[in-house]
Write the structure tokens for this entry.
Amino acid sequence: MTQRRILVTGASGKVGGAVVTQLHAAGVPVRALVRREAHFPAGVRAVRGDLGAPASLDTALEGVDTVFLVWPFLSAEGASDVLDTIGKHARRVVYLSSQGVGSKDQEPGDAITSFHAELERLTEASGLEWSALRPTGFASNTLGWAEDIRTTGVVRAPLARLARPLIHEADIAAVAVRALTTDDLLGARPLITGPELITQERQVALISEAIGRPVRFEEIALDEAIEQMTAAGYPAELVEAVLPAQAKMIDSPEPVNDEVQRITGTPARSFREWAADHAADFR
Ligand SMILES: NC(=O)c1ccc[n+]([C@@H]2O[C@H](COP(=O)([O-])OP(=O)(O)OC[C@H]3O[C@@H](n4cnc5c(N)ncnc54)[C@H](OP(=O)(O)O)[C@@H]3O)[C@@H](O)[C@H]2O)c1
């Protein structure tokens, strides 16, 4: 493993947080980009910066040669300036993209797929060494059910039969660590997936098993779910991208592969393992 100085963006988030933890555990010097106070393992330096204000990134990038880039916005606006700023300091960027970019089933106008495709294009054109990781849906999306599970024991959601190969953030992070610290994934866009398709109903059953309490899935209509997301304040681009894409996945599910194992040497974690790791979030 080449010793690098790595800046992790999205470090207080799910994937970035797992990348920080794994790099630190491997003894790799890692710096965390944050917008506010956040807690990391002792020895990880947190530096303030905002991806929406590229000039604020210079301090965090001082002495850094490799960047893990999580894009937290719903458009690619400003991404070119951020990559220029990264390019002034670093020589490698690993971008957290999405499997939708490589999928023929996505709507061309889907805002999320579009910004990831544009970020991949900009990353590749940046002159930096690059990799783009294309994970399927995150297991951590189910944390959106945590409050209902804690308070009512009922998950009211659409698409009970929707089956996805949800991926554990620790597996995305393990692939990211390979891309950040070795040359194995230079110029690659690996599609990385969880180990098997699991329906949403089954996901709820596995969370129930992990917490040792009954949890029921109550299916609601797609329109009601769209109304709920809108009322909860989710941006229209997100609502319009996520639920229709998920509805299509019932007949055309995301692929399942063993890329996590090929890249990291360890099989992708199951959703049962993910639920056990996160049981405390649902209790
Ligand atoms: N969910 C899925 O199924 C899925 C699938 C494929 C790809 N993705 C992609 O994965 C990414 C999200 O990863 P995640 O789930 O790990 O994220 P997350 O847990 O939601 O965390 C987002 C991170 O971005 C940071 N952030 C937000 N605004 C920022 C800004 N202006 N400047 C700097 N940092 C900022 C947040 O910091 P604060 O703590 O300061 O807010 C937080 O650390 C998105 O690009 C998404 O499209 C998601």
Summary: Residues 6-138+167-193+255-268 form a domain with the Rossmann fold fold (CATH 3.40.50.720). Residues 162 and 216 are 16 Å apart (CA to CA).
